[in-house]
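Q: Here's a chain of 255 amino acids. Please give me its 3D structure as tokens.
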Amino acid sequence: MKKILIFILLISSFEIYGQNSDFEKLILKYGQSDNELDTVLLKKYFDVYLHPDFAPSGYADKIIFRKPYMIGLSCNVPCTAGGMCESSKFRIFDYQGNIIDKLDRFEYVFADCQDNSERYCAYQSDSLLILVEEKSETDCDTDSLLKLDISFCTYKIDIDGKITELNKNHIDSKRDYFIASIQLLTDSDLQNKNKQDLATMRNEIFAAHGYIFKTDKWSDFFKTKEWYSPRFDNVDKYLTIIERENIKMIMKHEK
């Protein structure tokens, strides 16, 4: 009986060591110039099954976050469809390589001369993800934009690594400065804007959430916009972290 118990413990230790060894191998690929993942790691940790005609390779993409007891990783898989085609999967692991939670449709881009569908991570932390989705249609002959649809999804990551979708919101692309709601602005984005442009950009963020302006100047200005629907005296609770950070950045340049 004692010999059987020792044998079982040995077998278990070999299995744990093998899993840790594979996971350490996976993590070491991140940040390396040679970040291509072999079929074993892709299948084991990301449920990716490579096929030479559709998805011939996969790569260690991003470390989304790292905490003492868990880590968020994405892998990128190009495909062989016409035009641009690639997608990525997101996994949260403990450091034994066990999957805590996942998003299979994390980031992607599928594009040709006419249609473009893209999803990208505009904000990431160990507790929050904001993923922006853009779908557009372009005239192949003139390269002019015919249609643009934008939305974003917000996901919460709790202390145990579980992912919850909080909301999905549409962004009206008719706005002059809709970019301020879907990506973090930099100093270079704003350095050539005059004070009027900056003030308009900042107030447009509030207007997009239906803020009722108290001054005639901004009330009259946004009433001319077809997308504006005044509904709330206070919209603070509707502002995303991207919008809050951009308001601070715009105000810094206004000064």
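Q: Can you summarize the key feature?
A: The two ends are 79 Å apart (CA to CA).
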